[in-house]
Amino acid sequence: MKSPLLLALALSLAATAAPASERYGNPPPLVVSPDLSAPWVLQLRAGPNGASNKVVIAPRVLPRAIRKNKPQALGQAPRRGVEPVQTASVVRPEPQVRQMDPRFLPQTVDYSGPQKPGTIVIDTSSKFLYLVEAGGQARRYGVGVGKEGFVWTGTQKISRKAEWPDWRPPAEMIAGERAKGRVLPVHMAGGEDNPLGARAMYLGSTLYRIHGTNAPWTIGGNVSSGCIRMRNEDVSDLYDRVKIGTTVVVQ
Questions:
Q1: Whole-angstrom Cα distance, residue 136 to residue 134?
Q2: Per-residue pLDDT tens for 110-121?
Q3: 64-103 pLDDT, tens per residue?
Q4: Which of the ends of the chain has fewer CB neighbours closer than 10 A, N or C?
């Protein structure tokens, strides 16, 4: 026969040993370590009313070699021996943009040459164009000039000006490019893709022009078939400062 003391203790334990679903209305979240390989973690069961226990994984910085692994799909149990990988948004590098040498940006410089104010002077060796101003100064711009065999010198006057000019390559240029495997259009309307750029100032009755470009990184080089090439911003600035009849000295 059990003693009254033992009987009372057994009744007390039975009253307090209620199921977990009765002691907790909503099971608290389980906080586990980043190591999810322990078997008990894979056996988490649903709580009351079919609600799943919330699992909070402590953050962990992974070595570079591990970050290269393919991440697990969200909510999937990890494969045996494979650690889940925390992923971040992919940052794609910006495409590299070729820059012009900053020394070819426009600036005001001293000028002691013989040309009078209002004259354009182009130094093909240094790749600079000067618009002579009063007071012994000039506005200097960087330019691209003719390739080897296409550089020329002489004096001309601006005979025509055009905004967003169209382009009609000369027949010899079309033939020369075709021999290299490149096909040039007979005519291209003005616009951002046009190699003459935003503005053009035609020199006398020649085929040469001072014009813009859609390839500003070429400024400062021997790159043209004899024309004087400028950034679109710079040729637009020069265009507004000069008029038809302006003298252009190429040296």
A1: 6
A2: 999 999 999 999
A3: 443 444 444 444 555 555 555 554 555 555 555 678 899 9
A4: N
Which residues contact residue 111 at a Cβ distance below 8 angstroms, ignoring those fewer than 6 apart? Answer: 130, 132, 133, 136, 137, 138
* Measured distance CA(233)–CA(246) in Å, rounded: 20
Contact status, residue 17 vs residue 60, Cβ threshold 8 Å = no
E strand or H helix that includes residue 176: helix 171-179
Active site residues: 211, 227
Give the count of beta carbons closer than 10 Å to the beta carbon of residue 204: 14
Residue with tokens 């021999």: 179
Cα distances (Å, whole numbers) of residue 73 to 21, 35, 46, 63: 30, 17, 20, 20
Give yes or no for a contact between 143 and 212, defined as CB atoms under 8 angstroms apart: no
CA distance 3 to 65: 67
- Does this model's pTM top 0.70? no
HEC sequence for 33-87:
CCCCCCHHHHHCCECHHHCECCEEECCCCCCHHHHCCCCCCCCCCCCCCCCCCCC
Q: What angle do CA 123, 124, 128 make, to 5 degrees?
A: 50
- Domains of the chain, start order: 26-74 (no CATH), 103-250 (2.40.440.10)
Cα 49 from Cα 135, distance rounded (Å): 91
What was the pLDDT predicted at 100?
Answer: 84
